[in-house]
Every structure is written in C-alpha cells, then in structure tokens.
Amino acid sequence: MDRALNSDPVITADTEGRFQRWRNWIGFWLLGLCNNFAYVVMLSAAHDILQKQESQNTTTPTPAPNVTNIEIWSSSNSSSSSRYDCNPVSTAAVLLADILPTLIIKFTAPFYIHKVPYGFRVLVCFLTAVVSFLMVSFSSTILMSITGVIFASISSGLGELSFLSLSVFFSRDVLSGWGSGTGAAGVAGAFLYSAFTQAGLTPQVTLWIMLVVPVILAVSYFFLLVFPPSFPQWRRHEVGHGPFRTANSQERRPLIEEETDTDEDSEPTQEEQEDKHTGPLTFTDQLHIIKGLLKFIFPLSVVYFAEYFINQGLLELLYFPDSSLSHAEQYRWYQTLYQIGVFFSRTSLVCFKIRKIFLMSLLQCVNAVLLVFAVYYQFLHYPWVVFIIVLYEGLLGGAAYVNTFYFIREETAEREREFAMAAASVGDSLGIALSAAASFPVHHYFCSL
C-alpha cells in the first residue's frame, strides 16, 4: 500500500512532463504552420489581385518564390516567337517585396533583437500579419498590394528568427515540431486557398477568413506553450544570452563591492572566469560565433539558391504539350509535389538526422544543372520525370533546413545558442535572394529564344 502511494507522485510527474513536451511540440508545430501559412496564402492572393488590377495590361506579375499554390497562365501573355510557353516579361516588384524585408531583418536583428522581449515580438508578428491580410484584401492599387506583401515578409522573417531562438529554451524535440509545421504550411496553404477560391469565394473573402491564422499563432504562443518558470515574457533584465540566464542575477551581487589591489599579472579568479562565460555577448563574441556558423550558413544558402533557381527560373519552362495535363496543371503539380517533399523531410527529424549538409547542397546543385540542360536541350519527354525530380528537390531542401538548425543547437555552447539560431536563419533567405537575381535573366534568356 505504501509502495503504491509513494509511486503515484512519480507517475504523475512523469505523465505531466510528457504532457508538457507534447504541448510544446504541438505549440511549435502551430507556430511554424501559422508563420509560413499566412505568408504563402497572402502572397497567392496578392498575385490574384495584381492580375485583376492589371487585366488590361500586357504583362502579368510573376509570383514570388513562395507562391506555390497558384499559377495563372494567359495566352495573351505568352511570347508567340518563343519556343517556350512562357511569359517573357516578369515583374520583380512582388519578389523583391517578398525577399528583401526578411533578408534585412535576418541580417541585422540578431545583433539587437535579444533586447526585445519575446512576447512583444510575437505581438509585432501578429499585427503585421493582420495588416498584410487587410491591405491586400482591400487593395485597389499595385502599390498597396506590394505594401501588404512587405508586411507579410516582416511578419514571417521576424517570426522565423524569433521562434528558432525561442526553441533553445525548450527540449530539442520542439525543433522537429517547428520544422514539420513550416513544411505543412505550404501543403495546407495550397489546398485551402485553392479550395476556398474554387468553391466560389473571392480572394478578398478568402483573406478575411484567413485572418484566423495570426490569431492561432498568438494563441499558440501565449496559451499553449509551457514556458520554464524563469522565462521572462515581457522584461529583459537578464545577464547573458541563452536559456541559463536569470532575471535576478544582479540581486546576488553585493550593493557595495570592496576594492582590492590586484596584480596585473595575476591569474583571473574563478568568479571572474565565470562572469566572462556568462555575461552578455559582446560584438566581438557575436562575430566569432558567426564565423563558426559559416559551415552551416553557406551550405544552407547553396541549397536554397539551387532550390529557388529551379522553382522561379525553370519550372515554368518545363512544359510538355503532349501531356493530358495543361501547362497550368503541370506547374501546380510541380509545386504541390515540391511542398509534399518539403513537408515529409522537415518532419523526418523525429526519425533520423543527417549531419552532412554540404552533401545535400551538392545534390541540389546537380538537380539545378540537370534541369537547366533539360530546358535547353528538351530531352525530357514526360512530366512525371520532372515530378520525381521536384519531389526529390523538396526532400533535399526540407532536410537541409531542419538538420542545419538541429546541429547548430547541438554543437553550439549553451551561452551562444540563442544568438546562433537567430544569426543562422539568414541562410535560406540569402539563398532565395541570390537565386532571384540569377533566375530572372536566365528565365528571360530562354523566353527570348
């Protein structure tokens, strides 16, 4: 009887611990889903509205690289003199509005964002996402739509940086939840936006319905996550950068410290050494950390460069007229299979880890080179071959993303993890931005043939 009574608290504590881990995993899954879902859906709607606003013009904006669920082809926009069924004139404004704000945030924010409480950051993400939905839904000009895209980019960029940093305060398995959620965003966004619009709803009404997404993001953060007791939501009086920092560390110091004569050549005391390794990161420390992160950032950038070079510059040109699928249907299947590959590979972290990120970047470059030759020489004759390659492309890209941040967390000192996760998040956006610069002239060259 006594043994049973004594075992109850242990079982309860263990059950409570598992329950909290599941709550946090689901919380990060929803954060990843909402952070990317709102972005993809809003940009898709922006493309719809831009096309409507330019219905009398001769050009249609090319969607940003994240716009994976919709591609509207117009025979009036196709180049009759080109051997490819493509739109030779691209509008880069939406793409730049998509990438540049996120890139600027990820380049600069890691150096100062630790001074901003996480709760305030989440409110900024929530408000900018809501503003982006409303601006695009009520848009009457191209400038207004692009401004909505910029707000979406701010929300997504700040959210990704913040939630990756936030993950260091929790058990490592929340990273797999975040990765799986971001992977699911593309598939869910593609399905739901298409379902609502094909059911007869206008893009504007669909966007109003999607306002629930930033609400879910805020609820997931403030009410679903189980934070450590010492985690500060709204104040940043801590010392250091990392999950070990304490808000009351200043109270442990005496109010008046006695001055002692010390020899300049004397060895530092143990307390001085501890202060050196637990104090705030200096700018020099941050630069040193970034130097060590290059082995992760560079391969991730290469993966995303090749990935979006394929998506933005080549997939439109891989059209097979003899197929029973139309050009638009082929493109939608390319993007859908790509997103499915991303989802499964970003979820794979719960099953296995891949340390060799460089290998995945090399394989992704092989995909890009293969498809460039396929576009130029047109030696592929069936769309299902491209379907397999694009699914494989998504698997490589998603696996590179989640494994990069998993091993950054595992191989970075505890004091440096929060900053390292934020700083490394620039890798994917940098690759996308560079791919945009390369894909537009390549796309134009092929369309002019």
Automatic annotation (TrEMBL):
UniProt keywords (A-Z) are: Endosome, Glycoprotein, Lipoprotein, Lysosome, Membrane, Methylation, Phosphoprotein, Prenylation, Transmembrane, Transmembrane helix, Transport
Where do the TM regions start and end? 26-46, 118-136, 142-163, 175-196, 208-227, 357-379, 385-407, 419-440
- Matching InterPro entries: Battenin_disease_Cln3, Battenin_disease_Cln3_subgr, MFS_trans_sf
Q: Which residue intervals are annotated with compositional bias (Acidic residues) in the record? A: 257-273
Q: How does it sit in the membrane?
A: Multi-pass membrane protein
Report the GO terms under cellular component.
early endosome; late endosome; lysosomal membrane; membrane raft; neuron projection; trans-Golgi network
> What Gene Ontology biological process does one annotation of this record name?
membrane organization
Give the subcellular location.
Late endosome; Lysosome membrane
| Region (Disordered) residue spans | 242-278
Looking at the Swiss-Prot or TrEMBL record, what is one Pfam family this protein matches?
CLN3
Classify the source by domain of life.
Answer: Eukaryota
Family, similarity comment: Belongs to the battenin family.
Q: What is this protein called?
A: Battenin
Organism taxonomic ancestry: Eukaryota, Metazoa, Chordata, Craniata, Vertebrata
